[in-house]
Write a structure and sequence with these properties.
Oligomer: single chain
Pfam families: AMP-binding (PF00501), AMP-binding_C (PF13193)
Protein name: O-succinylbenzoic acid--CoA ligase
Keywords: Ligase
Number of domains: 2
CATH topology of the largest domain: Rossmann fold
Organism: Glaciihabitans tibetensis
Radius of gyration: 21 Å
Number of strands: 23
CATH superfamily of the largest domain: ANL, N-terminal domain
GO molecular function, one term: acid-thiol ligase activity
Length: 375
């Protein structure tokens, strides 16, 4: 059995109404698109009946994917989240709704029968955030942010009071620098780091611990996730099942389905630590170098919380790390520090200083654009 797939512009109110019908089974599946796009018509694509939502991944590091999610997976994610956060509450929507983090806010609001407070469209403004948050009056109040938004709020004294009023601030989407986490804790912000992806219906590991019936394991250095939150798989450009791509990412062992994340990590005493993308490892001078490890170390330095590390070709070494940042840092000191912490091959070849780092609409760094700057 199949159902119609409704492609509609990612306007929060429009997506909220359509998603409610999709989750209940009374309406078509939904694919939010970032710009005004095609709406349902006589020749609209059809997807499997179980599919309620299709999310196009950001494509920040590669070709975008179309992830098909069932209502069961999405509502399970909301239920698992509520169990950790202390119950259902009201959400502030500060993220685009064509990405899973923003869509998660809508799903959780639908599941809790509340209406989210929606931040005005446009560039993130901490003062507008504070004004919107002041209108929230539910007993439990939550918000989901990316690290760049959290950093801007911490830098805005007028926003700190209202930020403390949230019962929980979820931060995910990318690695959050340790100094930012510590600063938030020192300022009394109730913060939870989330880990997940479109393929897991959003965050399914909170502060390193799986939520609900989510399970985590590390096989050959790669994080794998299992549980009710897993997506159905991928769709191709014609919205047919992309069996080849799905089979590469989703495996079944002894009747249990697992998603291969492509992230490296380790589990110690039941707590997951994510070390970065496995495809971020380069070979420089014959040695393996983790760009994610270099980036994490550099982001711990004062003024470098948003720095990005990418690879660039080198006639001598093959590939070398390059730091792209908005705040200059002495290259010699940086090379010495990275060599000491991570080995000589981790020493950056150069620092590229830009006025502003390119970002996707989700707030994540646009790594493809940053890679071009680094060349």
């Amino acid at each position: 059995m199949t159902r119609e797939l409704l492609r509609l512009p990612a306007e929060p109110e429009t997506v909220f109404a359509a998603l409610r019908d999709a989750l209940s089974g009374s309406g078509p599946a939904v694919l939010p698109v970032p710009l005004a796009g095609a709406v349902a018509s006589a020749d609209a694509p059809r997807v499997a009946r179980r599919v309620a939502l299709v999310v196009e991944t950001s494509g920040s590091t590669g070709r975008p994917k179309r992830v098909a999610l069932s209502a069961d997976a999405l509502l399970a994610s909301a239920t698992f989240s509520d169990s950790v956060l202390g119950g259902a509450g009201q959400w502030l929507l500060a993220l685009p709704v064509h990405y899973i983090a923003g869509l998660n806010v809508l799903v959780r609001s639908i599941a809790s029968d509340t209406s989210p407070v929606v931040l005005a469209a446009g560039p993130f403004d901490p003062l507008q955030f504070a004004t919107a948050a002041e209108t929230m009056d539910a007993p439990l109040r939550f918000v989901s942010l990316v690290p760049a938004q959290l950093t801007r709020l911490l830098d805005t004294p007028e926003a700190l009071g209202v930020l403390r009023r949230f019962d929980r601030v979820l931060v995910g989407g990318q690695s959050t620098p340790g100094p930012v986490l510590q600063r938030a804790a020192d300022l009394g912000i109730s913060l939870t780091r989330t880990y997940g992806s479109s393929e897991t219906g959003g965050g399914c590991v909170y502060d390193g611990v799986p939520i609900g019936n989510t399970e985590v394991r590390v096989i050959d250095g790669q994080i794998e996730l299992s549980g009710r939150v897993l997506a159905e798989g991928y769709l191709d450009e014609n919205f047919e099942s992309d069996d080849e791509r799905s089979a590469a990412a989703f495996i079944t062992e002894h009747g249990q389905r697992w998603y291969r994340t492509g992230d490296g990590g380790e589990v110690v005493d039941g707590t997951l630590t994510v070390t970065g993308r496995l495809d971020d490892v380069i070979i420089s001078g014959g040695l393996k170098v983790s760009l994610a490890a270099i980036e994490q170390a550099i982001r711990a330095l004062p003024g470098q919380s948003a720095a990005v590390v990418v690879a660039a070709p080198s006639d001598r070494w093959g590939e070398v790390p390059v730091v792209v940042t908005t705040a200059d840092v002495p290259l010699d000191e940086l090379r010495e520090r990275m060599s000491r912490l991570l080995g000589p091959a981790a020493a950056p070849d150069r620092v590229v200083v830009v006025g502003q780092l390119p970002e996707l609409s989700s707030g994540k760094p646009d790594r493809r654009a940053i890679h071009r700057l680094a060349q």
